[in-house]
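Students often ask why inverse folding is considered easier than folding. One informal answer: many sequences map to the same fold, so there is more than one right answer. In these notes we will look at a single instance of the problem. The structure comes first.
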């Protein structure tokens, strides 16, 4: 008997209306449009500039669209996984808020924290839930309101990130399409090259942590760039070799949108031309867990059933991973 596979049957997204352009940032910090574009590939990013709305709102909007496009009602959903590092609260989980707002009364939910690798980790987790036979419909959402943890006086980080959400619906596959394989890695970032220092149990919120600006994202840009370039290329090549794939076999690389130079290096290692690489970083910046589902949404009309896709990401933790799937939507 053939093993059961999970496949993506629908996609959804949410983008805030407000655009923060490179020209806008020129007025805020010591930077310029050319410098940002040549080093990152980013032209603009979206910002959810509403104190009453946060990650759960964006995640719910993206999930609602995915369900609507599939013709699936919320009460048919078995489980909800939200990949995020910007939850509305430490607890309850953002996924529980999404479950309530969707009206998915039969579903349970939980958050998954793997930074920019979050969607890869969540999708591989959701696929195993379908493969087990215990779940029929699982929502996997990547959502982050990165503007809530960005220091807009720090020119090294504020140029990189935006807010957004992307969602997919996973269901059992009835053919050869679906998630074929995944590889995930992690390596503790004890040197804290990419982290948010304040707010956890080590440094709980206090007057001192706020005064010292410890609740903002910090990173050692050059070190993280080198590590990300190496790891994303390595794991993408690793999953191709494991599944006997060549560059000719791969229809699309769906990379995490952190930096165009990292994406280009990964594609070269895989033997892929630029025409086979999904890139939308110029429009949205780095939306952390939302980048990969946003790519799937933006390219949904160009994908063909049976296309071989490699999804690849690197994030804080350090975390990184890749997924090989055959596209299952006609």
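Output (designed amino acids):
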């Amino acid at each position: 008997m053939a093993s059961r596979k999970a496949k993506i049957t629908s996609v959804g997204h949410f983008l805030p209306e407000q655009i923060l352009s490179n020209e806008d940032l020129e007025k805020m910090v010591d930077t310029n449009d050319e410098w940002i574009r040549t080093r990152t590939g980013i032209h603009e990013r979206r910002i959810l500039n509403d104190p009453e709305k946060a990650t759960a709102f964006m995640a719910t909007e993206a999930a609602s669209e995915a369900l609507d496009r599939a013709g699936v009602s919320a009460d048919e959903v078995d489980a909800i996984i939200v990949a995020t590092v910007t939850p509305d609260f430490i607890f309850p989980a953002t996924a529980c808020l999404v479950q309530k707002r969707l009206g998915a009364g039969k579903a349970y939910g939980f958050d998954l924290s793997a930074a920019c690798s979050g969607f890869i980790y969540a999708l591989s987790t959701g696929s195993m839930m379908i493969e087990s036979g215990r779940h029929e419909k699982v929502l996997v959402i990547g959502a982050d309101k990165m503007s809530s943890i960005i220091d807009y006086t720090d020119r090294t980080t504020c140029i990189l990130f935006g807010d957004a959400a992307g969602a997919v619906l996973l269901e059992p596959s009835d053919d050869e399409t679906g998630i074929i394989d995944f590889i995930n890695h992690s390596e503790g970032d004890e040197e804290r090259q990419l982290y948010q220092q304040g707010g956890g149990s080590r440094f709980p919120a206090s007057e001192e942590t706020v005064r010292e600006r410890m609740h903002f994202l910090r990173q050692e840009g050059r070190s993280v760039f080198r590590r990300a370039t190496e790891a994303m290329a390595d794991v993408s090549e690793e999953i191709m070799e494991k599944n006997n794939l060549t560059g000719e076999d791969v229809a699309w690389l769906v990379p995490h949108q952190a930096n165009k130079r990292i994406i280009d290096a990964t594609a070269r290692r895989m033997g892929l031309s630029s025409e086979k690489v999904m890139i939308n970083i110029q429009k949205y910046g780095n939306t952390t867990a939302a980048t990969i589902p946003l790519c799937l949404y933006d390219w949904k009309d160009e994908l063909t059933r049976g296309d071989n896709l490699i999804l690849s990401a690197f994030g804080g933790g350090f975390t990184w991973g890749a997924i090989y799937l055959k596209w299952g939507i006609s």
